[in-house]
Amino acid sequence: MSQLTACAFLIGLVIFTCGAAADSDGGAQLIGVKSIANNLIVKGMDVTVQYDIYNVGDKAAMNVQLEEDGFPIDYFAVRSGFQHVRWTRLPPGANVSHTLILTPLQTFVFNASHAVMRYKVSDEATGSTVGYTTSPGEIAVIETADYDRQFSAHAMDWLTFGMMTTPSIIIPFLLWYASVRKYSNLASHSSRKNN
């Protein structure tokens, strides 16, 4: 029974693929990837969002627009780049990239959803085609103090450690040095008397 189900699934997939290929008019087809370059998102530190748009169709995409409305101004400040970008033409087989640098203003858990791509599939097309980039998913913005606690050099901690351990190292060294000087002086006096 499972072989029959698998066979029916494959036949359905082939029919769907052939139908989709017949429906495509050979115009531009864009694939958008939205990614966040940072491993950790920290309040007050820059976040780099990278957009890559690829034209996998056989015609140039015209009037390509990227619209990012997923970063509200109450939660993020734009440092560099634009949330709405436009390219006049994207040739077949080509790609474009855009970088947006933001700074989180608060700590919160945030759902980074997709950006919207609008474009014309050819010069002759009258309407725009709408596509979406990939979505990075849920992102947690952490507090700066938590980040510093985990990743700072802990200079004050090491300085305190050094100050606390110095007496336990210096005092025995001074006692040893005093005894070495005392006994070396006695040894040199006794060797002079023997000669």
TrEMBL record:
Pfam family, one: TRAP_beta
Domain of life assignment: Eukaryota
Transmembrane segments: 158-178
GO CC, one annotated term: endoplasmic reticulum
Signal peptide: 1-22
Keywords per UniProt: Membrane, Signal, Transmembrane, Transmembrane helix
Coiled coil: none
Protein name: Translocon-associated protein subunit beta
Source organism (scientific name): Macrostomum lignano
UniProt lineage: Eukaryota, Metazoa, Spiralia, Lophotrochozoa, Platyhelminthes
